[in-house]
Amino acid sequence: MLRDDSYRRGIIVFLIVLISLAHYRTREDLLYLHVIYREMYFLPVVLAGFWFGLRGGLLASLAVTCAYLPFVFLSADRFTGHEFGNLLEIMLYFAVGLLVGRMRDQEIRRQEQQRQMASLAAMGKGISCIAHDMKTPLTAIGGFARQLRRRIPDDDSDAAKKLELIIGQADRLELMIMDMLAFARPLRLDRRRGDLNDLIRQTVEVAAGPASAAGIRIELELDERLPSILFDRNRLQQALLNLIGNGVEASAAGSRVVVRSTLHAGEDRVVVEVLDRGRGVDEQEMDRICTPFMTTKKDGTGLGLAIVSKIVQAHGGSLRYRRREERGMLFAVALPWRGAGEAVPVAAPAAGTGPEEERDG
Question: 221-238 pLDDT, tens per residue?
Fold first, then answer.
């Protein structure tokens, strides 16, 4: 690949040098030849944009300008329509480099997305087969271990400890398999219009037990202007529980996790944010945290955020995240809410629901 890139760069440089030499070595009165050479500069610009994207197209345009502009001024005794046309042509070099480069970058991103989708589809099929094959024996192992544990007397601490270890590991593997199946299966949403704030309150009630045991407070900051929206209650609660659980796991005892809802009326969306004060995610891992099987946790499956992203996208929304300036992470679930002809709610916002200065991760 590097060898191909070097070869392509060499071709572009060679063309620019060759065309420039033709300009400078041709008599000034042979205007038709200079017009031909001027148009030939588009060739390296287009090639650079096609091979190297936006950056390549603009760099080639700059190189052509540096090579051609001295000739324009040296050969002009006075500013005429021809010189004006030459300057316009230089502007066109940048326009073409920008256009071809952007189109190429978009095509590369589209191809990469298609490759990822094909890879995830194949991965999902494989995961589904493996998970189904593992689910039955694991359930049997966990069930038999629990039956044995009930029959073991409490004074046999060594046997009880080993059985509890088996039960714990079987439960962990069953949860992992459930995550794998949730990721592999296509989502079928049962969307109904409901109160998103009500769902958030119920979700926090569910998460409050484990959080309290870890010494962490979950605080609500809800915007009471939120309209009713269409969503799958079970799926969205699963996504929010995952985000809140991640925040609780990342936070130290005595800290807090904030769950906030806000209405972005001008953008026709509602946003649910989960803010924690954990150590955050390393900068080099930020672009990969939603990648399946990528995890920073010792016992994590790497599917939690991938499942959250899948659920949110199925609702027509987006999942965004970033490191907070002070400490920790912010995850934001943005969901569409307004249909055609619906009015914007005008009630006063709840206290403490001001937007973050920066929302995109």
Answer: 998 888 889 999 888 998
pLDDT digits (tens, 9 = 90+) for 166-216: 888 787 777 777 767 666 667 778 889 999 999 999 999 988 888 888 899
Separation CA 321–CA 330 (nearest Å): 5
How many whole angstroms separate alpha carbon 21 and alpha carbon 37? 10
Closest CA to 50 of 102, 3, 11, 113: 102
CA distance 248 to 327: 14
Residue 97 · residue 50 · CB < 8 Å: no
**For helices 42-74 and 31-40, what crossing angle results, to 10°?**
140
Give CA separation, 137 vs 66, 231, 253, in Å.
71, 35, 37
